[in-house]
Design a protein that fits this description.
With 221 residues, the chain is an alpha+beta fold. The chain has a single domain, classed as CD59 (Ribbon). Helix content is 26%, strand content 37%. The chain is built from five helices and twelve strands. The chain has an eight-stranded antiparallel sheet. It has a two-stranded antiparallel sheet with strand order 1-3. Strands 8-9 form a two-stranded antiparallel ribbon. A hairpin with a 4-residue loop joins strand 4 and strand 5. The relative contact order is 0.13.
């Protein structure tokens, strides 16, 4: 009987260890690939690596993430890029998303209402051009995003809004405290998969274009 109890205990110990996932765990930003701290995670999670690039500096967060929210995605808005890699083997979350250009080009904004745009080259899995509008001052942002980011609305709030605020797209006279930031929401998010497809003309621009042939006919009289 005692031998059976010992056998059950040993099986339980070894089985629970087999179900435990070991992930790198650095909750503050560190240079990519330098996280040394680890954590034992439960069986229903994945190892997550979040990479943040602000145009001059790049950093990583590494942690255990719930499997329902752990996903691979990437988004670039101007000079700000955020990407996530999720994996399910021990210490797999040291890698970062691909930084290689993939051939897609999208428009990005130079001001909060996107009246002035420029093009940017998309990287890695960013196979969609994205356009977003925030409910504060109707702030518009454009850039590159991965398809699964566009389809997963639960990612929009923290990743997208943090990118917008971090990209200094908010005007200087708009200062947000934590409570106000939590109230931010996306009025709209749209994605498309062709080169420079996220530059739909404004109503004013469309009106001007419609008037061109009319004005030409008058000038030709």
């Amino acid at each position: 009987m005692a031998l059976q109890i010992i056998s059950v205990l040993l099986f339980t110990v070894f089985f629970s260890k087999a179900l435990t996932l070991v992930c790198y765990n650095c909750l503050t930003l560190v240079p990519p690939g330098t996280c040394k701290q680890t954590a034992n995670c439960s069986s229903n999670v994945g190892c997550n690596s979040i990479t943040i690039y602000n145009g001059s500096n790049i950093g990583n967060n590494n942690w255990c993430a719930n499997s329902s929210s752990c996903d691979n995605w990437s988004i670039t808005l101007g000079r700000i890029r955020r990407s996530s890699l999720c994996c399910t083997s021990d210490l797999c979350n040291k890698a970062t998303a691909s930084d290689s250009e993939n051939g897609l080009m999208c428009y990005t904004c130079n001001d909060i209402h996107c009246s002035n745009t420029q093009t940017q080259k998309c990287k890695g899995e960013e196979n969609q051009c994205i356009t977003t509008t925030v409910n504060v001052n109707n702030i518009i942002s454009k850039g590159c995003a991965s398809q699964n980011f566009c389809k997963n609305s639960t990612l929009w709030r923290n990743a997208l809004l943090s990118s917008i605020v971090g990209n200094s797209i908010l005007p200087n006279n708009v200062l947000l405290n934590n409570s106000q930031f939590q109230q931010l929401s996306m009025s709209s998010v749209s994605c498309c998969g062709a080169n420079l497809c996220n530059n739909a003309p404004s109503m004013a621009q469309e009106a001007v274009l419609l008037l061109v042939p009319v004005l030409s006919s008058f000038l030709s009289i």
